[in-house]
Amino acid sequence: MTYTKEYFIRFVEIFSKYLAENKEYLTQLDAAIGDGDHGINMDRGAKAALERLKSTNPSSPGEVLRTVGMAMLSSVGGAAGPLYGTAFIKMGMSFGKKPEITDEELIRGLRQALDGIKNLGKAEVGEKTMVDVWEPVVKFLEECAKEGKTLSDVCAEVIALAEERMKATIPMQAKKGRASYLGERSIGHQDPGATSSYFFFKSLCEAIGGR
Ligand code: ADP
Ligand code: MG
């Protein structure tokens, strides 16, 4: 099975829908341990990305993702803008100009995105950030790829794992970003960026149905 640019556009549309529906929720999570703008930031970024896709009509999966990343970089702001922007751009760059992406290439692209997030933000697992969702999911997908499984084969597990890792940020103390200023008071709250990352992977999976 391969992934065309239509798949990636559909993924961005679904991600955008989740971010719009959960704008208040993400904002409330960020209000508890940050400055309450994560939902607003991400919703604005996703809308800007969709508009940019419409006006530029990119010709390949890589170009779709690079376009989304650039739109997020220039419109999201905060910590999440550069982090998500980098993730989309790195993933897009790893696809080059290929018209269709295989499962192996998709997973390699997600690894590039994760490495981009970590290089920029310097967060490790356990520090209550989006990395707490990204890293275990990417590692799981890499294991699946070794066994010859596709994303489609393991979608239910990916969504469940992302949700579990998102919830696992609740008892963590934030060590990176704005929430880290709270010290121990950041304990007991779910990380907003881990939550938007759960929606990212859920959208990636759900986009398969509409391919
Ligand atoms: P800001 O913190 O600038 O207001 P957002 O509210 O949009 O930005 O995003 C906050 C989220 O960004 C956090 O919940 C966390 O998941 C993520 N984040 C913050 N700093 C880092 C970092 N250094 N590495 C990875 N993720 C980070
Ligand atoms: Mg914030």
Automatic annotation (TrEMBL):
<keyword id="KW-0808">Transferase</keyword>
<dbReference type="GO" id="GO:0005829">
    <property type="term" value="C:cytosol"/>
</dbReference>
<dbReference type="GO" id="GO:0004371">
    <property type="term" value="F:glycerone kinase activity"/>
</dbReference>
<dbReference type="InterPro" id="IPR004007">
    <property type="entry name" value="DhaL_dom"/>
</dbReference>
<protein>
    <submittedName>
        <fullName>Glycerone kinase</fullName>
        <ecNumber>2.7.-.-</ecNumber>
    </submittedName>
</protein>
<dbReference type="Pfam" id="PF02734">
    <property type="entry name" value="Dak2"/>
</dbReference>
<keyword id="KW-0418">Kinase</keyword>
<feature type="domain" description="DhaL">
    <location>
        <begin position="6"/>
        <end position="206"/>
    </location>
</feature>
<dbReference type="InterPro" id="IPR012737">
    <property type="entry name" value="DhaK_L_YcgS"/>
</dbReference>
<dbReference type="InterPro" id="IPR036117">
    <property type="entry name" value="DhaL_dom_sf"/>
</dbReference>
<dbReference type="GO" id="GO:0019563">
    <property type="term" value="P:glycerol catabolic process"/>
</dbReference>
<dbReference type="InterPro" id="IPR050861">
    <property type="entry name" value="Dihydroxyacetone_Kinase"/>
</dbReference>
